[in-house]
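User: Can you help me understand a structure? I only have the sequence.
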Amino acid sequence: MQTMLRGWGVVTDTASSGRAALTLFRQHHYAVVLMDIQMPGLDGVATTQLLRQHPDPARAATPVVALTAHAMPGDAERYRAAGLDGYLAKPFREQALFALLIQLLGLSPAADAHRPAQLAAPEPDTIQPVAATADRPPLYSLASINRLSGNDEAFVRRLVTLFIETTPPAVTRLERHLQQRQPTELAAAAHFLKSSTDGLQLFSLRPVLLALEAVATGSTPPDWPQLARLVGQVRVTVEEVVRRLREEFPA
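Assistant: Let's start by predicting it. Here is the structure, written out as tokens:
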């Protein structure tokens, strides 16, 4: 993982134990901490709780991401309750870590910029990718990636390639859960896509994915025709983004 982070241009320090992590944390200012839960001596949860006791409130609030090789049901809630800000189960995709980091560092669009209730689902034969208008953000933006990387073109191209290679298969999984009438899995796939698309700031797709989650997990039986329209919107929007990215970053 250190090699991956350095490939992004991120300066890193590593610690082999919770005690060593605490020592580094006292000596340096960090933008984010990636915390291995299974460490010798102090585990990641105990180490995080001690980090939160730093006398400087700003440093005590440093974002901490839990990394674990043994994911169990309820882990995310347990880690949040322990003071961790994010959670990834190993092995995780590079894109998932990148999306989580830019979210924690405040570089992703606000989650409530659009509300699902404001979304009008199009009819199946009129589905079009959401385009920018005077009162609507652009289809996507590379501003956060450029800012995070210091306008490193090679880094941006690498992340764009990762998006092009991994996002269409994720949409295919979304469609499969729709076809098999699996609302829980459909909502989980939509949530994953929402996180993985934050890196490119797909402003227009976020309300669609939020609506997918809301409809699939609502208290009433799923509205499958509406879910089908929303999944169709995801498909055509992702295809349009991929097409434009291929034009902007030719092989």
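Now, to help you interpret it: The longest strand covers residues 64-68. The chain is about 50% helix and 5% strand. Let me know which part you'd like to focus on.
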